[in-house]
Amino acid sequence: MKITTDTSPTGMNDSLDSAPAGGPFDLNVATARALLLADESGISPIVSLARTLRGRQPRVKPFALFELMPPLPFRPQPSRIMIPGLPVGVIAALPLLEDWGIPSRIACPAGDQPGCFEGAATDLARGWLDISQGVADVTVFACGGAALLEAIWVLAGAYRLACQTRAATSL
User: Fold this and answer.
1) How far is CA 17 from the centre of its chain?
2) Per-residue pLDDT at 134
3) How far apart are CA 149 and CA 19, in angstroms?
4) How many beta carbons lie within 10 A of that of residue 16, not counting itself?
5) Residue 155, pLDDT score
6) What end-to-end distance do the CA atoms of the chain give, in Å?
7) Residue 48: domain span
8) What is the 3-class SS of 58-127, one letter each residue?
9) What is the pLDDT of residue 48?
10) What is the pLDDT of residue 23?
11) Which pLDDT belongs to residue 107?
12) Choosing a second label site near 147 at 20 to 30 A (CA), which of 27, 36, 119, 157?
């Protein structure tokens, strides 16, 4: 398992191979809004992080995006939490986060999943970041496979966002 803790915009182009190994996300650098991203292998750590952030003081508002392939590992539910900047019809959410009042959405690059965004989670994140009123208060946290994490670093670099990633490992 690897984690990057460099949150400076200048360190965002560092290779994932240079990331220090082990350890949790550094929540001391979390800003007012947290963008959480995961693929199938990173769901559990990101849900755990969302739970931690929701009770954190000062308050951090998390927004979670999951990039999943069919069959989905859980049954999504239509979200009751509206998020400006997302395409109409993208309403599939992770039920547990919905119960906690944490907005989430599901991206399905393979398509063919009702309520899911047809594309990558980073593309969905771009749409949200483009209409957000400033992004200086957004910190990105991501957990998953190498392809997702590389895309996250590109996204974070493009918007000059503080970013931490953790490579998920299978046992």
Assistant:
1) 20
2) 77
3) 12
4) 14
5) 96
6) 11
7) 2-12+19-167
8) CCCEEEEEEECCCCCCCCCEECCCCCCCCCCCCCEECHHHHHCCCCEEEECCCCCCCCCECCCHHHHHHH
9) 94
10) 61
11) 97
12) 27
Q: Dihedral sign, CA of 36, 42, 44, 49? A: negative
- Provide the pLDDT for residue 5: 38
**pLDDT tens across 63-91, in order?**
999 999 999 988 999 999 999 889 999 99
Using 70 as the pLDDT threshold, list the residues of the chain that sit under it.
1-23, 170-171
CATH of the domain at 65: 3.40.50.80
> What are the backbone angles phi and psi of residue 159, rounded to the nearest 5°?
-105, 0
Within 8 A by CB and 6+ apart from 146, the residues are 16, 167
Type of residue found at 31: T
- Cα angle 74, 149, 139 (rounded to 5 degrees) comes to 90
> Would you say how long the chain is, in residues?
171
For the chain, the domain total comes to 1
- Examine residue 95 and say whether the peptide bond preceding it is cis (omega within 30 degrees of 0): no
The one-letter code for the residue type at 158 is: A
Strand partners, 167: 2, 144
pLDDT at 170: 58
Q: Give the closest residue to 65 by CA, choosing from 37, 103, 95, 41.
A: 37
